[in-house]
Amino acid sequence: MARFTRHLWLAAIALAAASATDTARAAGITGDQLLFFYDGRSGRVPFFGVSNPSTDSDVTIDVVFYPESLQDRLGRLRTTLPPLGHTVIDPTTAAGGIAIGNAGLAVVTPVAANGNPVVPDEPLVGTSTLANVPLDSAFGENPIGRSATTSDGHRPVPGTLVDGASAFYERLRPSTLMVPVFFDPTELGPADQDGNRVVLLAFTDRYGDEFDVGPHEDTVEATFFDASGSSMAETSIIVRGVHATHLQEVAGPTELSASGKVFFEVDAGAGNVAGIFSQSLGPFGAGQRMPEVFGNETNATALDVGATSGDQLLFFYDGRSGRVPFLSIGNPSPASSVTIDVVFHSESLDDRLGVATYTLAPSGHVIVDPNQAAGGVAIGNAGLAVVTAVDASDGRPIVPPEPLVGTATLANIPLESAFGENAVGRLAVGADGERASPGAEVDGDTVAFQRLSPSMLIVPLFFDPTQLGPVENDGNRVILVAFRDEYGARFDVAGRTETMDARIFGADGTLVSTSDVTVRGVLATNAQAIASPTALDASGKIVLDVDASGGSVFGLFSQSLGPFGAGHRLPAIDVSELPGPTPTPDGSPTPVPTAGSTPSPSATPTASAAPTTTPVPSPAPTASPAPSPTPPGSTIGGIPQSACRDGIIDAGEECDDGPANFECKNDPEFQSVCGPGTTSGWTCAYCAQTYLIGSPDILVPCGGSGMVLVSIQPLADRTCSTIGLGTVASCGITLGPTTTETICPEITDFIQPSGNQDDLLEKFRSTTCLGRACVERSSIIGDCLGKSQGTPCTLIVGGQPAFGTCLGVRSGSPICIGETISLAN
Fold first, then answer.
1. In the chain, what's the furthest Cα-to-Cα distance?
2. In sequence order, what are the residues at sequence separation of 6 or more whose Cβ sits closer than 8 angstroms to the Cβ of residue 576?
3. Distance (Å, rounded) from C-alpha 776 to C-alpha 770?
4. Separation between Cα atoms, residue 145 and residue 78, nearest integer Å
5. Is the pTM of this model over 0.70?
6. Are residues 293 and 363 in contact, defined by beta-carbon separation less than 8 angstroms?
7. Exposed (0-12), middle (13-18) or buried (19+): which is 20, by Cβ within 10 Å?
8. What is the DSSP secondary-structure string of 388-434?
9. Residue 78 Cα distances to 169, 207, 754, angstroms
10. Residue of 567, 550, 432, 571 whose CA lies nearest to 498
11. What is the pLDDT at residue 97?
12. Bigger pLDDT: 297 or 461?
């Protein structure tokens, strides 16, 4: 504790001595360069999207993949994004699939034709998703963004060479990063499977003909506190490059068995430091970036987008049927307690539904369940929760000792999915934009909360909504909030009405739809509703023209690919006038364009999760089957999906129905898509309600709209050897006659290669191919029930016993995994 307090004192001196030309900034969510953590190791599926907000300029980007050490480049992908265009990048297939088996940093840099780093026309925006297949969980976040700058702190004109001398990227130099609140690790998923995950980045910038990053080494001191503010552990770790770890490892010998928070004291020196954190409550994953604390400098009365900490925090909550929200609020001050009011407002913001008051000890926190707080007023409701520091004696809003931090988790029980985000924070400032002194009254006159006043908000990327969870069940969700501040003896927010001009663009930047969206208070809507009456059947982005008019506006977005949910706040952009609909001579409606051919990663995870012992406040209804995620877009290999459905081999096609050529099976109830010719005649990713048995290939059924082709090679020892073909990129992989490796670039379905049709279908329903493991989920393997993780177990495949390891138990179903499973001849 003494070490922690001493560091804060030294940090305060360093901040006071910082020069006006210091280019260090807190990480943004847009930037002239974007940084993504990726993880392509076993059981993990990463992908991210990058969008070009410019309305009139292309941008060429280099996406460079680095290993955790940052010592060298694993590979590079160069692509050009048209105006208002985007790309979806799967690190396990990009640049030759060099990310498979690796974790590290992906750096997205706009470049000139010769590869020199340059300032783009508009700062880039993006999103990331990191899925964990064994946990059936994922989290998503905005990228870490940073701007190009000159020595006087101004952004250079577009096209300027970022050479490290006349122009360079802002450095990320926090003094302290913080995990605002973590849940009891014993209630989370297994630590070695990312039940909680701490990712710290320490790197240096290397300028030249091409931009590079290299490793920076920092000894990071970690101090853990529990909810009461008592110290739980003090440790130190060495971070060099990308350090992906978990809470228990950071805590060292200290056993963590309660919720808490972590302060990471860093010294970026001449380098850069940033961090993200995630945790999974069963399949409900949530993640966020680590806020910078004890260094919150500002000079603005209005922000484009809320910060990750603030003197006031704003949360969207949703306590309607099948939904479970959690809010976490932390007090970073090591010396002073703070009293907070958590006020729950209705969607219209016309009503205060209830208020809960808490006193947070120094370095203390509280986890708020809106379905129980304030008498459970959030049950059946959605709206805005506003967290304000108040004078304990009379409830007047005041400036807290240090800006508060917080996180939110919003779970959807039927989807078995969740997303998490940092709270939307804003500071209390004077007329000059400087943060007011702690304890000052926030009266709206001499001191007021910063307004959130973007000119445009953007959903950087949504996937094909037809491939996401049901829209009415939050398969994708757009949250827009428009409010005004009301000051007085107590602080309140009130709903204000705003009509936003909403435009949706495809991957190639083509306008798909335009509409007006009216927001009053909180609007919980979705991409399809915004596009109506235009049907969405491809990935895209949404640009919202905003006029805050003296009030405040912000937004959130989330989407769920099966149980893998990801969400983030909407970045603000400031671009020239958006293109309008193209008029047609006969007045007919503008046609919906075909989406660009940029595929989303097609991981179709169907693994079972670890035990869930988390505090879900209300009984969870039985989850409905989640659809298998498939690539967004309406083309594969440049050929329209619809071309595979007519039973005719058209120009450019190599297959279409017919028992003699079953690469592309036509089934009226399921999608079927053709691709380019590949080895072994595999040209299709496919899903059908029934199946055909070929030799050596087998087309297997799958649920929902997933697309799977599995080939089982006739190996001499009948070892389980499968190939899952869910994308064109993974088509054409051939196993040699002696190969025994199981290849599952996405998690695909496995069935026994012999037997009658009824047995075959039943076997399919109870088995899954998981990476290098064949998993059978049936009552036969009750052997795992009550056993601890890692205990040997037996399962039956093809009537023969095979040996594996217990993964765990979920919903009472035992799960046994075998690394290699031999089948009987």
1. 83
2. 55, 56
3. 10
4. 19
5. yes
6. no
7. exposed
8. EEE-TTT--BB--SS-EEEEEEEEETTTTEEEEEE-EEE-EE-TTSP
9. 20, 18, 45
10. 550
11. 85
12. 461
